[in-house]
Amino acid sequence: MTTTKLSLDEIYNLAFTSLTKNGCDEYNAEAVSTTVKHAERDGSVSHGLFRIPGYIASLKSKKVKADARPTSTFLTQNVIRVDGDYGFAPTAIKVGIPNLVDTTNKHGVGVLTITNTHHFAALWHETEALAENNLIGIACTAYKPSVAPAGAKKPLFGTNPISFAWPRKNNTPVVYDMATSTMAMGEVQVAARDGHKVPYGTGLNKDGEKTDDPSQIANGGVLLTFGDYKGSAIAMMIELLAAGLVGDLFSFEAKEEDNNDGGPARGGEFIMALSPKLIAGNNWNEHAESFFEKMTSLDGVRLPGTRRHNNRNNDGPREINTSLVEKINSLI
Ligand code: NDP
Q: Predicted confidence band at 201 (pLDDT cuts at 50, 70, 90)?
């Protein structure tokens, strides 16, 4: 794979220019480009610039509103709904997080439901934003079906990611962010693009047989959930939280509505915040640190999130797939 060196500012500018040149207003382009830049900074490459052609396709088809203005409403004292106004999710998240932080600091628990948005990014952006405010964050979202429930050969679930962030004083939070499929479809697409195999059993081909060929999974095949029926139960829970509870589309409904332009389908997101200070008391940090010490003293253990946070320490240029850079430039 040939790569091109781009600084973090160049990554931001490439994203911002490509979005605004395709009709996105600066308010929304700023939110999306920041998410893209942070993804590249942390090495979340399947959710950085790789997503720009899809974002642009959804602007061109007008599926996504280029000048969306999400609005925030309190449903109860600690349940907030942000209506995304049919725009990109990073804008809706940016609008909702400050209210979620405030209400969780008052009440110990807060819920943010996001509706009418198009989510195409990693979820650690939102859970880490809560952890940076000393809150625990949990987020999940559903997507168009590409994953078979346990026992099935046909898709019903999205890759349905879930992220959890635990805040740490004087340290980066402990964060996991994972698809409930064996792999995220973005990673499968990157593997197909780069000519790599995926582990056998990652998914089924169009005939319902297990395969290690990512292009067979991405084109007419189906992904499987991690951990067989256990992962399937978590993927089901995410459908219920991010669609049933939030009041937005289940994965199968998102597919029925979507115009298949290659950009993100419409859907909702469920975000919950918890205050360890109000729930556990003042000693919460030291207590959890003793647990992390025990955990990391075991040979071979690393805390989730560490890889990204280590990448973040490097503020130098990133190696970006040259054909991707050329593709984005051709769309400007
Ligand atoms: P990975 O399997 O790469 O990683 C999942 C998590 O496990 C990460 O938090 C990672 O931390 C952690 N981890 C990995 N290896 C270890 C290890 N050896 N020890 C401890 N922790 C480890 O992620 P996925 O491929 O499942 O998902 C990739 C991204 O795709 C996610 O960000 C997800 O939000 C996004 N996604 C978004 C969708 C959407 O609709 N918007 C749909 C589906 C997925 P670390 O980062 O430090 O390696």
A: confident
